[in-house]
Design brief:
single chain, about 475 residues, alpha/beta, Rossmann fold, Helicase, Ruva Protein, domain 3, five-stranded parallel β-sheet
Length: about 475
């Protein structure tokens, strides 16, 4: 069923057209003037507009055509003429109308057929548009799959900010796919054909970081025999991805802050700044807020980088994604290596689900690649998995239960206090086992450092 707008200044014809449209099961609205038609188009979305080319002695139906075709998601347009001339109708076609017909004894039959053709055309175009967008989304988010709530939230944020040049900070453990997310943000942007320049900030010698990022002029330092563009210049119009941004030398951080604020770069040794049009996406496996509190990272730079934060959960916190990721990698490597592998046996999948994957998605990808290469048939079996995964079992240390063999107290319990006391004691034991090192204690508890710090803050002042 479609939505149709009929525009005609003749009451009898409006009524007849309204009946024809309604008989075909479509919603219909009628208007008699150009102004009313414009208002209707601005206020609602229509699949089809049927308009007379002569609305009155002063109003032209061509203006209805123009206004309709200028709408977002422009409707199909059928124009009618009573003057036996095709010139004006052809002009309407040139403006975007889909069909035209002449008023006459066969109008009811002709318009009925054209309505169905126009609505069908509109629906097919809409379906094709949805398919194109879905294919675009799948291509741009290739490898970023997951049905877990945590991953759906990540993908939602990626899609919402992908078309914006907003600065994004991606956080998460090593191997969680932070660069994939950065590339997806770039591909979803307005200029996906422009450069994507990844930079591992921790892999560049400290004395060369400034020159690598911002470039240098001839003679800026020993060995600078010629002027050289930096990576910010190379990424112009596109995206520069600063991975492990927490590794940037403290002395260089004010210069990066200025680039972000002013969108201008000064080459090493130069006296003038140059404008640079580039989107900045950064990533880190450190907690930059903690680093800033410790004086190892500038707080103002952290705030400037953290306009939009995307926190990628570790694989152990989204185990329901392991089967989906595994199948994705199986299909990828089976195609790449020309292998007949299609699936994973239930026993092998069980081992994958039990494993903690400290290396996250990257480790799972490597495991599946190895298994595809070693598989003897169409299935990956337990024997095709690495030894540590083949022998893995659910670790008793990760399953903690509180049991009391006595009967449940007749007077009941204070649930909140009981749980809080247990949580507090567990945190204290983890801290003791970790020698007071909070990051290690958080790891022992299977928590991110931010989660751990939040829980500790709830107990500040407890027991004195």
């Amino acid at each position: 069923m479609g939505k149709v707008l009929v525009v005609d200044d003749e009451p009898g014809l409006r009524t007849a057209l309204e009946a024809i449209v309604a008989e075909r099961g479509h919603q219909v609205r009628t208007e008699s003037s150009l102004g009313a038609a414009r208002a209707a188009l601005d206020a609602d979305c229509f699949d089809l507009v049927i308009t007379d080319l002569r609305l009155s002695t002063t109003e032209d139906g061509m203006d209805v055509v123009k206004h309709a075709r200028a709408q977002k998601g422009a409707p199909e347009v059928i124009v009618m003429t009573a003057y036996g001339t095709r010139e004006k109708a052809q002009s309407a076609i040139a403006l975007g109308a889909s069909f035209y017909l002449e008023k006459g004894p066969h109008l009811a039959t002709d318009v009925s057929v054209l309505i169905q053709q126009a609505i069908t055309k509109r629906q097919l175009e809409s379906e094709n548009d949805l398919l194109r967008r879905e294919l675009f989304r799948q291509n741009n988010l290739e490898g970023m799959v997951g049905r877990s709530a945590a991953m759906r939230e990540v993908l939602d944020v990626v899609e919402r900010v992908g078309g914006l040049k907003v600065t994004v900070l991606i956080t998460g453990e090593s191997g969680t796919g932070k660069e994939r997310i950065a590339r997806a943000l770039h591909r979803l942007g307005s200029e996906p054909d422009r450069p994507f320049i990844p930079v591992n900030c921790g892999a560049i010698p400290e004395n060369l970081v400034e020159s690598e990022l911002f470039g240098h002029v001839e003679g800026a330092f020993t060995g600078a025999d010629a002027e050289r563009e930096g990576l910010f210049h190379a990424a112009r119009g596109g995206t520069i991805f600063l991975d492990e941004v927490g590794e940037l030398p403290l002395a260089l951080q004010p210069k990066l802050l200025r680039v972000l604020q002013e969108r201008r770069v000064k080459r090493l040794g130069a006296t003038k700044e140059e404008p640079v049009d580039v989107r900045v996406v950064t990533a880190t496996n450190r907690d930059l807020e903690v680093e800033a509190e410790a004086g190892r990272f500038r707080e103002d730079l952290f705030f400037r980088l953290n306009v939009v934060q995307i926190d990628v959960p570790p694989l152990r916190q989204r185990r329901e994604d392991i089967p989906l990721l595994t199948q994705h990698f199986v299909q990828h490597y089976a195609r790449e290596y020309g292998r007949p592998v299609r699936e994973v046996t239930p026993e092998a999948m069980g081992r994958l689900l039990e494993f903690s994957f400290p290396g996250n998605v990257r480790q799972l990808q490597n495991v599946v690649e190895r298994a595809v290469a070693l598989a003897r048939g169409s299935e990956i079996t337990v024997d095709d998995l690495p030894r540590d995964i083949r022998l893995s079992e659910s670790s008793p240390a990760r399953v903690f239960s509180v049991r009391d063999d006595s009967d449940f107290p007749s007077e009941g319990v204070d649930f909140e206090r009981l749980v809080a006391d247990f949580e507090y004691n567990l945190i204290q034991k983890a801290l003791a086992r970790a020698g007071g090192v909070k990051t290690k204690a958080a790891e022992l508890l299977g928590l991110s450092f931010r989660q751990f710090r939040y829980k500790v803050s709830k107990f500040e002042g407890k027991n004195g």
